[in-house]
Design a protein that fits this description.
- By secondary structure, the protein is of the alpha/beta class.
- It is 41% helix and 9% strand.
- The chain contains eleven helices and six strands.
- A six-stranded mixed β-sheet has the order 2-1-4-3-5-6.
- The two termini are 36 Å apart.
- The N terminus is likely disordered.
């Protein structure tokens, strides 16, 4: 199947300039992603963020990183992190960045370190090369300058625009990974946007293209529960099933 051309990407949302012709994974491509290798080895140091900080707490650093750079998507000041990251020259940036192979669905309440850990652990468990797996993750790939610009003008980005954008990303990126944490009471399932992303993934993709991922800690804990056979573990699993059964998007 051919890679989508720019004309196919009109539905990837407000971070794609209408006149954009970049669709090769280079800066400006709305489906450009950063490699799992970069996320693990360099992201926190280059953005000067604490690994245990939650995503919503580092949003100012995301904008600071792209400050002073011209966005290759719309020609305006301020770029998304994915477009501002260097190409690896001089040991800085991501020499493996390019067209995303994975879209990560997650919550901004998650710690950056847990996101990176889950991606690295899943990549290793699947026997994949972290340099070849590139992740589209909204806090790095959506231009936060534009979101903030509209907030300052009192013109919040319409939910429909974000929905169109994420639906486009789901359709064009080969895999969707959903990070559930903690495994026994996933915050993910209490967020309507997360449930929507997972729903779209299941609707548009084959089953093998949608994967639930866990941090190493959660995977080990879940495995230990499954390996033991006692009433306490049965109660734990029963509690998890109740959480899954209780998802109500109207209240998420």
């Amino acid at each position: 199947e051919r890679a989508p051309m720019a004309a196919d990407l009109a539905d990837v949302g407000p971070w794609l300039s209408p006149g954009d012709t970049v669709a090769d994974g280079s800066p400006g491509d709305p489906l450009r992603g950063l490699s799992i290798w970069y996320l693990r080895e360099r992201l926190c140091a280059e953005l000067a963020i604490h690994p245990d900080a939650k995503v919503h707490e580092v949003e100012p650093r995301l904008r600071a990183f792209g400050e002073g750079q011209t966005c290759p998507r719309d020609g305006e000041p301020g770029a998304a992190v994915v477009d501002a990251v260097g190409d690896g020259t001089g040991g800085v940036g991501d020499p493996h960045a390019g067209r995303a192979t994975i879209m990560l669905s997650y919550s901004w309440q998650y710690a950056v370190s847990d996101i990176v850990d889950a991606l690295s652990a899943t990549c290793a468990a699947l026997g994949r090369d972290p340099q070849a797996e590139r992740v589209w993750i909204c806090f790095l790939c959506v231009n936060q300058h534009r979101v903030k610009d509209r907030e300052r003008l009192g013109d919040a980005m319409p939910t429909e625009a974000f929905m169109d954008g994420f639906q486009g990303a789901v359709r064009h990126i080969p895999e969707l990974w959903a990070l559930l944490q903690p495994w026994y009471r996933p915050l993910y399932l209490s967020r309507a946007w997360c449930v929507f992303e997972l729903h779209e993934g299941l609707r548009h993709k084959r089953p093998e293209e949608v994967r639930v991922v866990l941090t190493r800690r959660d995977a080990d804990d879940f495995g230990a529960v499954l390996a033991r056979d006692n009433w306490s573990n049965l109660r734990t699993l029963s509690a998890l099933f109740r959480v899954l059964a209780a998802v109500r998007t109207a209240r998420a």
